[in-house]
Design a protein that fits this description.
Layout lengths: L9 H11 L4 H8 L3 H14 L5 H10 L17 H15 L1
């Protein structure tokens, strides 16, 4: 996906950021003030646009492509923990560098 331009709506970016924190569809729906079925629509659109087989891959692709940044993620997100962040930063640098 490197070099690929992916356009996300603001809502899709919001869902991706919340999803990165490990939130369930119900939690995302509550946070965004939308129906769970609408969350499913957004998650499916994200997976399609990011060519991701699952939610975790969608988050990683979003990070690699710069669609979301580590400092935008909830503190509950494993990617924000220092050891995990360092490991992923190294992987992301290799993937994009």
């Amino acid at each position: 996906m490197s070099g690929t331009t992916v356009r996300l709506t603001e809502r899709e970016r919001e869902v991706l950021r919340i999803m990165a924190g490990g939130a369930t569809d119900a939690e995302i729906a509550h946070s965004c003030g939308i129906a769970v079925a609408t969350v499913h629509t957004h998650v499916n659109a994200l997976r399609r646009k990011l060519r991701a087989p699952n939610r975790t891959s969608a988050v990683v692709h979003g990070l690699v492509l710069g669609l979301i940044a580590l400092d935008q993620l909830p503190l509950t997100c494993p990617f924000t923990q220092p050891a995990v962040a360092a490991r992923w930063h190294s992987r992301l640098s290799q993937a994009t560098g």
